[in-house]
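note to self: the first set is below, dont mix up w the second
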Amino acid sequence: MKIASKVIVISTLLFIPVATAISPEATLIVEASVQKVMWGKTELVVGQIGKVTILKDTPLVQVKNGKLVTVRTLKKGDQFRVYQYKSDNGGMYGVGGGSFVVRNTANVKYETPSKANLALLAKINGETKPVTSPPTQTVGSIKAQYGKHVYGSKSQAEYDAVVKEAKAQLAKFKMSDDTINVSYLDRYIAGERPSGGGGRGSTVDRELGMIHSAVGSLVANGVSKADILKLVTSADVDGTLREGAKDPKDGSPRSAYDAMFRGLDDCDPTAEVQSLVFDIQGYSTMIVAGNNHASLYVKVQGKWYAYGSGSFLVADKDPSVLASGTYIMSQPTF
């Protein structure tokens, strides 16, 4: 008889078990504080696509100069997380750090996480979901859909126009290598890094270097590939919405409407358009201003990231803890 796999949430601190039946494949045991989703012998993490169980001693390999080189021998019964699959050499499971287990059904058993397991992981990690029917709040005379953000709009008509256009651009957006090279993103998530020179040199180094600069902080903090793609989509659409807008150098542009419909840009409208797009995508955003500049922060899986010029950098402190001369121009969405 096949026994259904179980998922157990454990804590590193106080043991206070509260069991809840999720599905035939998942059992949730909340034990307080730091939570982990255990899948067999391994912890299920964001960005993982499966796991391998070693049935017979088998080599762990890396690709060097186009050849497979054995790093060490994996022992029967060991389990490892899988982050990517490559069709080379008959199939290889990427287990991180640029290492692989060659596909061999006699030696290795590969499994993918169930929908119940993934749902539980998403719940625990607080993965964002698109806001489909956001509650409205009235800010002055404007009914706002995302927190109290009105994106600098002076009227309901301006607000409705920028929201409608941003949604339209998101709906017709198509991912391309100009947005992010997904194959190199997969390699970066699996552990590959540029060999040096800040991404200069070979094509591989350049591509991995660009990935590192743009989303390296997100990968380092375990943000899922799905969230990363949604974030870079938002960044690309932000640029599209402000395309052609010029800075009059007089500080007059203030709103998303100024940038999107009047062709007038500055740091304030830039931050407002960015906030608009990320809000629609289901993230919480805030704008911190001061010292003649406005900066956008977006919250991803509980951490704030400063966003600008296509890069997401984890904030070294809570952005609501203000530096001298700064103030919160736009409070967090939620």
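second set (the one i keep forgetting abt)
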Amino acid sequence: MGQTNSSTRDATQHGSPKRLSTDIRKLIKGKSGKGSEGTKKGKKTDKFKKGAGQYGNSSESYQENHNTQEDERTIAGSQLSVGGADDQNLNQSTSHASNIVKTKSHKRNSNTQNLKVTDIEVDSDVKSTSQLSRKGTVDILKDPRSKTTRVNLHDYLFSRTVGTGSFGRVRVVNHKHTGKHYAVKILSKQQIIKSKQVAHINAERSVLAFCDSPFIVKLYGTTQDRNNIFMFLEYVSGGEMFTYIRRYKRFPSPVAKFYAAEVLLSIRYLHSYDIIYRDLKPENLLIAADGHIKLTDLGFAKQVPDITWTLCGTPDYLAPEIIQSKGYGKSVDWYSLGVLIFEMMAGYPPFYEQDHRKLYERILANRFQWPPHFDPVAGNLVRNLVTPDLTKRFGNLINGVSDITSHEWFQEVNWEKLESKKIVPPIIPKSRSEGDTSNFDNYPESHDTYGQDLDYDEEDALFADF
């Protein structure tokens, strides 16, 4: 679920570090060192040489759903077609892709025990020689912009659930006096404490309150009662990108390019404040009513001026250095961007395996196959993003993100226009009203009572900033 901890593909933050270390050592000593990217039956392919969350479901076709104001989309002054043959591609896939999509049509949870990880709190594993001294960097936890407005629960009418997760659910609410709609993330204090996620939740609140980007969901206020904490978020009515990939099977290159570019801007914004996102996936990308992207679920986001060791994320999107329990930095988000581009254009993630052990083997070996329809220029960028070699990974080199923004696949993108949202999105979600929830899946409703008085005990004190 895009705005809880979540009902989507498994992202994780618990387990036994000893078991993990043993598993990884076996992988490293076993098959993991043998494969290579673009390998098929042991033979390398040069096809892509250099130069070449949370909600949602509905049944409308792309023809009904995409913006019909014009058949050509301008991303930077040159025309990018999303009509004709490309439109047909949205409703077709190779047999290989179809089989995988049928297998993985379920969402990936953001909190599971499938991946063995350490039970450590956020910030306990940060190593920094710079101590946030880089020019322009602020300590978000201490910055006044990270403070939030205290909300009165009795001012809101609670509507249907649009997502569920390990710690709670997201419900749509509207203000009794203004009529404005919000998505309220309701999380159980007991579950948060039991899972040792108090610091992560507090950090998520701080990061969301601090962020001011058109491509990141906004936090308007918080509160707590005896049993739960509440985050009142911008309501994004278009649903998850995961829903649209599931519906159309895959995106043509121009459509994937538009979304990848907006995601890049959101990640670049976070990185400018030394924040690593660490949970990029289609389930955590919401499509706003105007068709633009909103990054959500910042539960694993963390300000890291140097490196961190916390093992968390979604298995399909984990960078090799995270699996190997190595220290890592911002480059893991650029790795995940490469995986996202592949999934948007193929309909499934590059290393997909139902068995997580086999999945990690493939990630460590960088072993995946290119669909025959894959745009070779996009493939070249993906290859440079998902490389396990940090000395070659785009976004981690001396030119930083410029190696990505200046890549041939993005050459027609006018980044200034894109950042100011002056580019017409390829898909405009159908929405009947501001509070429309038709783009989201149906979830069992809860009959919990909210607003009980606080006990003002140690448990309540853990969430004093809410």
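remember for set 2: The longest strand covers residues 156-164.
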